[in-house]
Amino acid sequence: MRNVLIIDDEEKLRNLLTKIISYEGFEVHQASNCKMALKNLEQSEVDVVICDVKLPDGNGVELSKIIKNKYPLIEIILLTAYGNIPDGVQAIKNGAFDYITKGDDNNKIIPLLYRAIEKVELAKRVQRLEKQLKDKYSFENIIGKSKLIQNAINLARKVAESDTTVLLTGETGTGKEVFAQAIHQSSSRRNKNFVAVNCSAFSRELLESEFFGHKAGAFSGAIKDHKGLFDEANDGTIFLDEIGELALDLQAKLLRVIETGEFFKVGESKPTKANVRIIAATNRDLQKEIEVGNFREDLFYRIATFQINLPALCERVIDIEIFANHFMQLFSAKANKKVVKISDDCINALKQHQWKGNIRELRNVMERCVILAESIELTADLLPMEIQKTTTLSTKNKQFSTFELASAEKLHIQKVLSYTNGNKTKTAELLGIALTTLYRKLSEYNIT
What we know:
The protein is an alpha/beta fold.
């Protein structure tokens, strides 16, 4: 039910307007002065206020400002016995939807009311969509309990509040765009555009035009002006994924944007201002790319002002079961299936897989399993054959002693050592133990 509040000290007029508006299916509330009106607004959800300018304890024009400051979605229609241009101008400045003279209201009030309601409902839809977007890309929706991912989330939360350029590093599929979206949604730019571009998805010539836009006639086929992604992201955030793939000459132009806040459209000599926050991401080792001449060192230090590394899925085995259950619920709902659990054998198989495609690969595997499922439970035989083979091989290679826990610990240490290419400091860090403890266990388990 859409609600209207009528504020007027003339009881007969209030009752007449209430009768007219009620016939249109609106719920109508009444108040005879400013004090009663504000109390009513605190107690009821009101969409439109119809208010007299002259009130016993105040002025409707000033009341409009108070109402809009406290309830920005409410639209206000002001009524006056005498047309007054300065009052009308001030009313609109104070946020009133419209200003009409009494006597004209019988013919005008209902069409005007419907237009005001349309504006209110549009604003409410936008507010709901913004909330859904914020909820979807909030840090609270990033899955994982492991220490490494929680550390990354804590860093991202802290940097989100600033305008600092951020570099997200990590393997393919570790969730870099999810983090970029969460940083944007937690920043002061959240109500502006978030523009994502994959730097490896365009040719060098096309990418410059996509980045900065071009003027008509700048090159063959440029028949009209084209707005670039930096223009689209103005006052917001641009996410440059796979920045390690960027050509050297474009790296120089990107560096100029960061340093001066300006860029040149293709075919234009006049610079364009850019108020854009940059979040970059790469799965490459940019330090090595600098050494071989593929990446500018000065650009690296500008984009890596605040660097966050997103851990690979094999570094956060504790989170695999959480992800698996999340994707099972997601895809079973989409497929309208009642899949409610995952067998222990299936979970164990998922935990033993290397997941070179990380979360993205796991998501695809779980979607496949749900599609193939014919019961309420996902079992290991639904997994791709390469995962089943890896699990079988791992089981055959285990040489469990009577002390099962110790044998499992030895196997896990060997697995992490293999992942770090024998780097014991990194291995101890990933295992969450002191380096001296790791050396003791290496000696104890005769691991070389």
